[in-house]
Structure formats: C-alpha cells, structure tokens
C-alpha cells in the first residue's frame, strides 16, 4: 500500500530561494495581555503584507496583542510549542494537504489525514521519533521548492505539550476542514473553536475571505456562526474550487470572539 500526501495548492506567483532551518523559536513575553498569533508559513513563497497589517490592526483594536511568525520561523518546533504560549486566537496562513492511499492496482483511495505544512526544510534524520511514529511527513509545495515537514493531528495530540486554553483556531490552508481529524485534535487539546475551509482554496481568495472573517468577528462583534455566514454570503465560496467555510464544534456558533477570548472591544 502506497501513501501520498495530496496537496491542492493555491496558485503561487513567487519562488524564493531554499530554506534555512529554524532551530529555535523563543516564546513571546509572559507578561503580555490577551494574545493572538498569525502563523504565516505561506510567506516563504507568497507573502501578503497587506493581509498581515489589516488583520493585525483589527485584532489590536479588538483587544489583542499580536505576534507574527513569518516564513522560515514557522518550524516544527514552533508548532510544538504553540500550546504553551497562551494564545487565545491563532490564524494559520499555511499550506495544508490530505494524505491519500493507493492500493496495489494503482487506485487512489479515501483521503486519510490532514497535514499542516511548516516552512522547515525536510531532513530524513531530523525528528526521527516523530517520523517513525507517523506524526510528520515530507511535503512538496512546488516541484522547484525544497520538501518541507508537515504535521498531522497525531502530532498535535502527542507532540505538542500543554493545552490550548479556549483558543479560537482559524485555518487558511486547503481542505483543513474536509476531514475532522485536525479539528478534533485541536478541540481535544482545549481549543474552543476550529474554523477552516472544506476544500481547495486559492491564495487570493482565502486571504480576502479570512480578512473578512476577522472583520466580522472583531470589528463587527459577530458570533462565530454569524461571522462565518456573512463571509460566505459576502465573499462566497472559493470561485475556482467551490470550497466553503466550516467551523467545529457547532455549539460555538453563538459565541463571540470576546466571549471566547475574554477580551473587550477596542475603544
């Protein structure tokens, strides 16, 4: 039985040089207030400073202190340590893919697992335990870019010490909500809500849609359900792939970001 990590990528317009390994990610200051993080793995190939600036400004107005991890900073070790940093909101602007199996006759079977990309260049003899334990795989963003590590829900459950304290997770990668494995893992680790798209998305679209979602949640003070519905009405599903926004669990539909994170709106 062969297994493949099938990646439905957005169209990329930039190709940057090879990656350097990120060997350590120091934690943010422990004396800060309610914090949010933008984890921008996509910045290694397709940065969008306008997105980062807009979302950061809206989150700050909503009462958050914002940390941005960009490009090569987005490593396996960063993912490992995220539960320990106390974030109430984490936005993953990162590629994702679905692992599929191919049987002996060459037929690709059911999609098996969701993988979230890092920007850390793959090395066969790095993170050996996690690789042997099927928590990490090498993943390809484009044929002319080095392979990078990608993590799955088992990594979230078994290799990310600590817990997410009612954190709102927003995933911008392809098919992050096609299966429920990643959502279930984050919620089991303490996240209050997991939001993501149920199929392939293009970069231009998901940047616009995610920014609109943050506006609805923060500036407009909508509940999770209202914000998702308005984004899907105003921006719509991905025009090329038809993917729509989903959230888990359904019980979080009636909660606002202030209720989830314990913040109050900006003055």
What would a concise description of this structure say?
The chain has 267 residues and is of the alpha/beta class. 27% of the residues lie in helices and 25% in strands.
Question: Your description of this structure?
Answer:
α1 (49-61) runs parallel beside α6 (203-219), α4 (153-159) packs parallel to α5 and α6 crosses α7. The protein has one domain (2-10, 33-261): 3-Layer(aba) Sandwich (Rossmann fold). The model is unreliable at 6-26 (pLDDT under 50). The strands form two sheets. It has a six-stranded mixed beta sheet with strand order 3-2-4-9-10-11, sandwiched between helices. It has a five-stranded antiparallel beta sheet with strand order 1-5-6-8-7. The protein has helices at 49-61, 76-81, 128-132, 153-159, 181-188, 203-219, 224-234, 257-261; strands at residues 2-6, 35-40, 65-70, 87-93, 96-102, 108-121, 136-139, 148-152, 168-171, 193-197, 245-248. The longest helix is centred in the C-terminal third of the chain and has 17 residues, at 203-219. The protein has 267 residues and is of the alpha/beta class. It is built from eight helices and eleven strands. A hairpin with a 5-residue loop joins β5 (96-102) and β6 (108-121).
């Amino acid at each position: 039985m062969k297994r493949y990590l099938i990646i439905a990528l957005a169209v990329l317009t930039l190709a940057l040089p090879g990656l350097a390994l990120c060997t350590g990610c120091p934690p943010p200051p422990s004396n800060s207030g309610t914090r949010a993080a933008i984890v921008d793995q996509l910045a290694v190939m397709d940065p969008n400073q306008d997105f980062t600036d807009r979302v950061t400004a809206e989150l700050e107005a909503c009462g958050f202190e914002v940390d941005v991890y960009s490009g090569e900073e987005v490593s396996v070790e960063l993912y490992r340590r995220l539960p320990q940093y106390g974030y109430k909101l984490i936005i993953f602007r990162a590629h994702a893919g679905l692992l599929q199996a191919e049987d002996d006759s060459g037929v690709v079977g059911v999609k098996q697992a969701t993988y979230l990309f890092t920007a850390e260049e793959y090395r066969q003899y790095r993170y050996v335990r996690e690789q042997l334990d099927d928590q990490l795989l090498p993943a390809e963003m484009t044929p002319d870019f080095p392979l990078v590590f990608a993590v799955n829900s088992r990594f979230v459950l078994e290799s990310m010490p600590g817990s997410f304290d009612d954190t709102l997770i927003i995933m911008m990668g392809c098919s992050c909500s096609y299966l429920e494995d990643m959502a279930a893992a984050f919620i089991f680790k303490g996240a209050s809500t997991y939001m993501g798209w149920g199929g392939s998305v293009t970069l231009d679209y998901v940047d616009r849609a995610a920014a609109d979602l943050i506006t609805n949640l923060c500036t407009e003070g909508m509940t999770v359900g209202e914000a998702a519905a308005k984004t899907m009405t105003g921006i719509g599903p991905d025009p090329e792939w038809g993917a729509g926004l989903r959230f888990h669990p359904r019980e979080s539909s009636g909660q606002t970001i202030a209720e989830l994170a314990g913040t109050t709106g900006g003055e």
